[in-house]
Amino acid sequence: MAPMDQIAGIELGGTKALAVLARGTEILASERIATTTPDETLGALVDLLNGWKRDQGYAALGIASFGPLRLDPDAADYGLMLATPKVGWTGADIAKTLRAASDCPTRVDTDVNAAALAEWRWGAGKGLDSVVYLTLGTGVGGGVLVGGRPVHGALHPEIGHLRLRRASGDDFPGSCPFHGDCAEGLLSGPALRARFGASGATISDDDPRWSFVAHDLAQLIGALLLVTSPQKILIGGGVGLGRSFLLERAWQHVVTDLAAYLPHVSDADPVSLIGLPALGEKAGPLGAIALGEAALRDARA
Protein backbone atom coordinates (compact mmCIF):
# COMPACT_ATOMS: atom_id res chain seq x y z
CA MET A 1 0.00 0.00 0.00
CA ALA A 2 1.30 3.47 -0.92
CA PRO A 3 2.17 5.78 2.00
CA MET A 4 -0.93 7.92 2.42
CA ASP A 5 1.06 11.06 3.25
CA GLN A 6 3.42 10.99 0.26
CA ILE A 7 2.56 12.80 -2.96
CA ALA A 8 4.40 12.85 -6.29
CA GLY A 9 4.52 16.06 -8.29
CA ILE A 10 5.67 17.00 -11.78
CA GLU A 11 6.44 20.60 -12.73
CA LEU A 12 6.80 20.55 -16.51
CA GLY A 13 8.38 23.74 -17.80
CA GLY A 14 9.53 24.92 -21.19
CA THR A 15 13.22 24.23 -20.52
CA LYS A 16 13.15 21.69 -17.69
CA ALA A 17 10.89 19.35 -15.78
CA LEU A 18 11.19 18.89 -12.05
CA ALA A 19 9.83 15.76 -10.41
CA VAL A 20 9.42 15.73 -6.63
CA LEU A 21 8.27 13.29 -3.99
CA ALA A 22 7.03 15.10 -0.91
CA ARG A 23 5.26 14.88 2.41
CA GLY A 24 3.51 18.23 2.75
CA THR A 25 6.18 20.86 2.05
CA GLU A 26 9.00 18.44 2.92
CA ILE A 27 10.63 17.35 -0.33
CA LEU A 28 11.87 13.79 0.07
CA ALA A 29 13.35 13.34 -3.40
CA SER A 30 13.70 15.41 -6.55
CA GLU A 31 14.98 14.96 -10.09
CA ARG A 32 15.53 17.50 -12.86
CA ILE A 33 15.03 16.49 -16.50
CA ALA A 34 15.57 18.64 -19.59
CA THR A 35 12.46 19.45 -21.62
CA THR A 36 13.40 18.23 -25.08
CA THR A 37 10.85 16.23 -27.07
CA PRO A 38 7.62 14.85 -25.58
CA ASP A 39 8.78 11.27 -26.09
CA GLU A 40 12.12 11.85 -24.36
CA THR A 41 10.91 14.06 -21.52
CA LEU A 42 7.65 12.31 -20.70
CA GLY A 43 9.34 8.94 -21.10
CA ALA A 44 12.02 9.86 -18.57
CA LEU A 45 9.35 11.14 -16.16
CA VAL A 46 7.34 7.92 -16.53
CA ASP A 47 10.43 5.86 -15.70
CA LEU A 48 11.07 8.01 -12.64
CA LEU A 49 7.46 7.79 -11.42
CA ASN A 50 7.47 4.02 -11.91
CA GLY A 51 10.62 3.76 -9.82
CA TRP A 52 9.23 5.90 -7.00
CA LYS A 53 5.95 3.96 -7.06
CA ARG A 54 7.80 0.68 -6.78
CA ASP A 55 10.45 1.67 -4.23
CA GLN A 56 8.84 4.32 -2.03
CA GLY A 57 5.19 4.65 -2.96
CA TYR A 58 2.90 7.66 -3.17
CA ALA A 59 -0.82 8.18 -2.85
CA ALA A 60 -1.51 10.76 -5.56
CA LEU A 61 0.10 12.69 -8.41
CA GLY A 62 -0.08 16.38 -9.26
CA ILE A 63 0.95 17.64 -12.70
CA ALA A 64 1.73 21.34 -13.17
CA SER A 65 2.56 21.99 -16.81
CA PHE A 66 3.24 24.85 -19.18
CA GLY A 67 0.34 25.36 -21.54
CA PRO A 68 -2.04 25.91 -23.03
CA LEU A 69 -3.77 22.78 -21.72
CA ARG A 70 -7.23 21.34 -21.92
CA LEU A 71 -8.36 21.27 -18.27
CA ASP A 72 -11.99 20.15 -18.57
CA PRO A 73 -12.02 16.60 -17.12
CA ASP A 74 -15.03 15.75 -19.30
CA ALA A 75 -13.31 16.76 -22.53
CA ALA A 76 -12.00 14.06 -24.85
CA ASP A 77 -8.66 15.86 -25.01
CA TYR A 78 -8.34 16.48 -21.24
CA GLY A 79 -4.73 17.06 -20.27
CA LEU A 80 -3.64 17.53 -23.89
CA MET A 81 -1.20 20.28 -24.89
CA LEU A 82 -2.91 22.67 -27.30
CA ALA A 83 -1.17 24.95 -29.82
CA THR A 84 2.04 26.13 -28.13
CA PRO A 85 5.15 28.02 -29.20
CA LYS A 86 7.21 25.14 -27.73
CA VAL A 87 8.27 23.28 -30.86
CA GLY A 88 7.06 19.68 -31.04
CA TRP A 89 4.77 19.83 -28.01
CA THR A 90 1.45 20.70 -29.65
CA GLY A 91 -0.79 17.66 -29.17
CA ALA A 92 1.36 16.03 -26.49
CA ASP A 93 -0.88 13.99 -24.16
CA ILE A 94 0.57 15.13 -20.84
CA ALA A 95 -2.09 13.82 -18.47
CA LYS A 96 -2.69 10.41 -20.04
CA THR A 97 1.01 9.62 -20.36
CA LEU A 98 1.96 10.52 -16.79
CA ARG A 99 -1.22 9.26 -15.16
CA ALA A 100 -0.73 5.82 -16.70
CA ALA A 101 2.54 5.46 -14.80
CA SER A 102 0.92 6.14 -11.44
CA ASP A 103 -2.53 4.50 -11.31
CA CYS A 104 -3.62 6.84 -8.50
CA PRO A 105 -5.68 10.03 -8.07
CA THR A 106 -4.22 12.68 -10.38
CA ARG A 107 -4.89 16.36 -11.01
CA VAL A 108 -3.55 18.47 -13.86
CA ASP A 109 -3.33 22.26 -14.05
CA THR A 110 -1.10 24.94 -15.49
CA ASP A 111 2.25 25.52 -13.83
CA VAL A 112 1.25 29.07 -12.91
CA ASN A 113 -2.12 28.09 -11.43
CA ALA A 114 -0.28 25.46 -9.38
CA ALA A 115 2.33 27.98 -8.19
CA ALA A 116 -0.48 30.35 -7.16
CA LEU A 117 -2.06 27.50 -5.23
CA ALA A 118 1.20 26.71 -3.41
CA GLU A 119 1.74 30.36 -2.46
CA TRP A 120 -1.85 30.56 -1.22
CA ARG A 121 -1.44 27.48 0.93
CA TRP A 122 2.09 27.91 2.25
CA GLY A 123 3.60 31.18 1.05
CA ALA A 124 3.02 34.86 0.38
CA GLY A 125 -0.67 34.40 -0.45
CA LYS A 126 -1.57 32.62 2.78
CA GLY A 127 -4.73 34.03 4.35
CA LEU A 128 -5.79 35.91 1.20
CA ASP A 129 -8.83 35.28 -0.98
CA SER A 130 -7.44 36.33 -4.37
CA VAL A 131 -3.90 35.85 -5.67
CA VAL A 132 -2.23 36.17 -9.06
CA TYR A 133 1.05 34.38 -9.72
CA LEU A 134 2.85 35.91 -12.70
CA THR A 135 5.89 34.15 -14.09
CA LEU A 136 8.46 35.78 -16.36
CA GLY A 137 10.77 33.11 -17.73
CA THR A 138 10.97 31.00 -20.88
CA GLY A 139 7.41 32.21 -21.40
CA VAL A 140 5.06 34.57 -19.60
CA GLY A 141 2.06 33.13 -17.79
CA GLY A 142 -0.30 33.96 -14.99
CA GLY A 143 -2.22 31.83 -12.53
CA VAL A 144 -5.34 33.32 -10.97
CA LEU A 145 -6.70 32.00 -7.67
CA VAL A 146 -10.03 33.08 -6.19
CA GLY A 147 -11.35 31.59 -2.96
CA GLY A 148 -8.52 29.10 -2.90
CA ARG A 149 -9.42 27.65 -6.30
CA PRO A 150 -7.57 28.16 -9.60
CA VAL A 151 -9.65 29.96 -12.21
CA HIS A 152 -10.74 27.83 -15.16
CA GLY A 153 -13.34 28.50 -17.83
CA ALA A 154 -13.45 27.66 -21.49
CA LEU A 155 -9.70 27.11 -21.05
CA HIS A 156 -7.61 28.86 -18.39
CA PRO A 157 -6.18 32.37 -18.11
CA GLU A 158 -3.67 33.11 -20.88
CA ILE A 159 -2.25 36.27 -19.39
CA GLY A 160 1.00 36.01 -21.33
CA HIS A 161 -0.75 36.67 -24.61
CA LEU A 162 -2.44 39.93 -23.70
CA ARG A 163 -1.52 42.73 -26.10
CA LEU A 164 -1.02 45.99 -24.29
CA ARG A 165 -0.18 49.62 -25.01
CA ARG A 166 3.41 50.08 -26.16
CA ALA A 167 5.80 52.78 -25.00
CA SER A 168 6.34 55.72 -27.32
CA GLY A 169 9.50 55.23 -29.37
CA ASP A 170 9.77 51.47 -28.74
CA ASP A 171 10.07 49.79 -32.13
CA PHE A 172 10.90 46.27 -30.89
CA PRO A 173 8.43 44.02 -32.80
CA GLY A 174 8.22 41.32 -30.13
CA SER A 175 9.11 37.65 -30.41
CA CYS A 176 5.89 35.66 -29.94
CA PRO A 177 5.31 33.48 -33.03
CA PHE A 178 1.55 33.91 -32.62
CA HIS A 179 1.12 37.58 -31.67
CA GLY A 180 4.45 39.37 -31.99
CA ASP A 181 4.33 41.98 -29.23
CA CYS A 182 2.03 40.36 -26.66
CA ALA A 183 3.28 40.23 -23.05
CA GLU A 184 5.20 37.02 -23.71
CA GLY A 185 6.70 38.48 -26.87
CA LEU A 186 7.99 41.44 -24.86
CA LEU A 187 8.84 40.16 -21.37
CA SER A 188 9.95 36.52 -21.63
CA GLY A 189 13.58 35.45 -21.52
CA PRO A 190 13.67 34.79 -25.30
CA ALA A 191 12.02 38.18 -25.90
CA LEU A 192 14.71 39.95 -23.87
CA ARG A 193 17.40 38.09 -25.82
CA ALA A 194 15.79 39.21 -29.07
CA ARG A 195 15.51 42.80 -27.86
CA PHE A 196 19.04 43.09 -26.43
CA GLY A 197 20.87 40.73 -28.79
CA ALA A 198 22.14 38.82 -25.73
CA SER A 199 20.76 37.17 -22.62
CA GLY A 200 19.00 39.67 -20.36
CA ALA A 201 21.11 38.35 -17.48
CA THR A 202 24.22 39.84 -19.11
CA ILE A 203 22.78 43.32 -19.67
CA SER A 204 23.63 46.08 -17.20
CA ASP A 205 20.84 47.46 -15.02
CA ASP A 206 21.73 50.89 -16.40
CA ASP A 207 20.96 49.98 -20.01
CA PRO A 208 18.29 52.50 -21.15
CA ARG A 209 16.34 49.77 -22.97
CA TRP A 210 15.21 48.44 -19.58
CA SER A 211 12.89 51.45 -19.43
CA PHE A 212 10.85 49.89 -22.25
CA VAL A 213 10.76 46.55 -20.41
CA ALA A 214 9.62 48.28 -17.20
CA HIS A 215 6.87 50.02 -19.17
CA ASP A 216 5.68 46.72 -20.63
CA LEU A 217 5.67 45.06 -17.22
CA ALA A 218 3.70 47.99 -15.81
CA GLN A 219 1.09 47.63 -18.53
CA LEU A 220 0.65 43.97 -17.62
CA ILE A 221 0.45 44.65 -13.87
CA GLY A 222 -2.07 47.43 -14.42
CA ALA A 223 -4.27 45.18 -16.54
CA LEU A 224 -4.20 42.46 -13.87
CA LEU A 225 -5.11 44.94 -11.12
CA LEU A 226 -8.07 46.19 -13.14
CA VAL A 227 -9.37 42.87 -14.48
CA THR A 228 -8.76 40.36 -11.67
CA SER A 229 -8.65 42.71 -8.62
CA PRO A 230 -6.12 40.56 -6.76
CA GLN A 231 -5.08 41.16 -3.19
CA LYS A 232 -1.56 40.17 -4.20
CA ILE A 233 0.40 39.76 -7.43
CA LEU A 234 3.47 37.56 -7.02
CA ILE A 235 6.13 37.71 -9.72
CA GLY A 236 8.38 34.68 -10.23
CA GLY A 237 10.30 32.97 -13.01
CA GLY A 238 13.91 33.45 -14.06
CA VAL A 239 13.39 37.00 -15.31
CA GLY A 240 11.10 37.97 -12.43
CA LEU A 241 13.37 36.60 -9.71
CA GLY A 242 16.60 37.64 -11.41
CA ARG A 243 15.75 41.27 -12.23
CA SER A 244 13.91 42.52 -9.16
CA PHE A 245 14.89 46.16 -9.90
CA LEU A 246 12.32 46.07 -12.71
CA LEU A 247 9.55 45.83 -10.14
CA GLU A 248 10.26 49.22 -8.59
CA ARG A 249 10.57 50.88 -11.99
CA ALA A 250 7.38 49.25 -13.26
CA TRP A 251 5.44 50.25 -10.15
CA GLN A 252 6.14 53.94 -10.75
CA HIS A 253 4.51 53.55 -14.17
CA VAL A 254 1.56 51.67 -12.65
CA VAL A 255 0.81 54.41 -10.11
CA THR A 256 1.05 57.09 -12.79
CA ASP A 257 -0.98 55.19 -15.39
CA LEU A 258 -3.86 54.33 -13.04
CA ALA A 259 -4.08 57.98 -11.98
CA ALA A 260 -5.52 57.27 -8.50
CA TYR A 261 -8.50 55.44 -10.04
CA LEU A 262 -8.00 52.42 -7.76
CA PRO A 263 -8.01 53.61 -4.13
CA HIS A 264 -5.63 50.85 -3.02
CA VAL A 265 -3.06 51.92 -5.64
CA SER A 266 -2.41 55.33 -4.23
CA ASP A 267 1.28 55.57 -3.34
CA ALA A 268 4.67 54.53 -4.64
CA ASP A 269 5.11 51.53 -2.34
CA PRO A 270 4.23 48.26 -4.10
CA VAL A 271 4.87 45.95 -1.14
CA SER A 272 1.23 45.53 -0.14
CA LEU A 273 0.11 44.51 -3.63
CA ILE A 274 3.16 43.28 -5.54
CA GLY A 275 5.90 41.00 -4.33
CA LEU A 276 8.15 38.02 -4.89
CA PRO A 277 6.98 34.49 -4.14
CA ALA A 278 7.80 33.45 -0.57
CA LEU A 279 8.48 29.92 -1.81
CA GLY A 280 10.89 31.13 -4.50
CA GLU A 281 11.78 28.41 -6.99
CA LYS A 282 9.86 25.87 -4.90
CA ALA A 283 6.51 27.45 -5.78
CA GLY A 284 6.20 25.37 -8.96
CA PRO A 285 7.05 21.92 -7.59
CA LEU A 286 5.10 22.52 -4.37
CA GLY A 287 2.20 23.62 -6.55
CA ALA A 288 2.27 20.18 -8.17
CA ILE A 289 2.21 18.64 -4.68
CA ALA A 290 -0.79 20.83 -3.75
CA LEU A 291 -2.58 19.56 -6.87
CA GLY A 292 -1.86 15.97 -5.87
CA GLU A 293 -3.20 16.60 -2.37
CA ALA A 294 -6.38 18.08 -3.88
CA ALA A 295 -6.81 15.02 -6.10
CA LEU A 296 -6.46 12.76 -3.08
CA ARG A 297 -9.00 14.75 -1.06
CA ASP A 298 -11.51 14.52 -3.91
CA ALA A 299 -10.94 10.78 -4.23
CA ARG A 300 -11.65 10.30 -0.52
CA ALA A 301 -14.74 12.54 -0.47
TrEMBL record:
It catalyses: D-fructose + ATP = D-fructose 6-phosphate + ADP + H(+). Pfam families: ROK (PF00480). This is fructokinase. Gene3D superfamilies: 3.30.420.40. One of its GO terms (molecular function) is metal ion binding. Keywords: Kinase, Magnesium, Metal-binding, Transferase, Zinc. The keyword Ribonucleoprotein does not apply. Its EC number is 2.7.1.4. It is an enzyme of class 2 (transferase). It comes from the Bacteria. Its cofactor is Mg(2+). It comes from Sphingopyxis bauzanensis.
